[in-house]
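Summary of Year 1 activities. Much of the first year was spent building the evaluation harness for sequence design. The harness presents a backbone, in tokenized form, and records the residue chosen at every position. We chose the following record to illustrate the format because it has been used consistently in internal testing since the harness was completed.
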């Protein structure tokens, strides 16, 4: 099985956009936090996070199928491939594993958190409070591209309240603020 370092290098080779790279790193960070919470393999879950959108820039019409095809060729575990396929609702791939449910749950939420940080005067996640994030979540005009229903469904599929889910991902991203360019 490929290592996390190889997964990261692959993502970077396939993705030029710095903002898309940061998004995938944010999802990786959130996936690591969920892996720790559930006592799962952190590196494996991190790979699903860092690779989930690797083909989006090159093959937007074939995402996530093209990326999964390459990952399968390179010997990535089926559990990772299934989670990546399941993170996009339109694939119709059911989210059966905890990994797949977590990937779906964190994908849109990391985008909302990042957008909330970018409108802060200091552009830092360190001072972003859960209460502010919840206000941004409720404001339909803010970050209109973020699918709030998928965030709700993701939390529910994990058996968490929306507040618990938001707090866990916010804290995970806060701890890696420098890596994510959100300090």
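For this record, the design step produced the sequence shown next.
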């Amino acid at each position: 099985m490929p290592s996390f370092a190889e997964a990261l290098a692959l993502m970077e080779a396939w993705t030029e956009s710095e903002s898309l790279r940061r998004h995938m790193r944010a999802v990786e960070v959130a996936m690591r936090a969920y892996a720790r919470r559930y006592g799962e393999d952190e590196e494996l879950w991190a790979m699903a996070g860092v690779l989930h959108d690797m083909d989006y820039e090159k093959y937007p019409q074939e995402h996530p199928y093209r990326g999964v095809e390459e990952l399968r060729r390179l010997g990535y575990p089926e559990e990772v491939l299934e989670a990546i396929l399941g993170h996009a609702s339109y694939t119709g791939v059911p989210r059966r594993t905890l990994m797949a449910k977590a990937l779906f749950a964190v994908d849109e939420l990391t985008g909302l958190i990042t957008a909330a940080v970018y409108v802060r005067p200091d552009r830092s996640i360190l001072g972003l409070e859960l209460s502010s994030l919840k206000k941004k979540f409720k404001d339909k005009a803010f970050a209109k591209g973020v699918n709030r229903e998928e965030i709700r469904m993701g939390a529910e599929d994990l058996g968490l309240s929306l507040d618990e889910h938001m707090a866990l991902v916010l804290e995970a991203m806060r701890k890696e603020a420098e890596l994510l360019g959100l300090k």
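The chain has ten helices and no strands. Quantitative recovery figures across the full test set are reported in Table 2.
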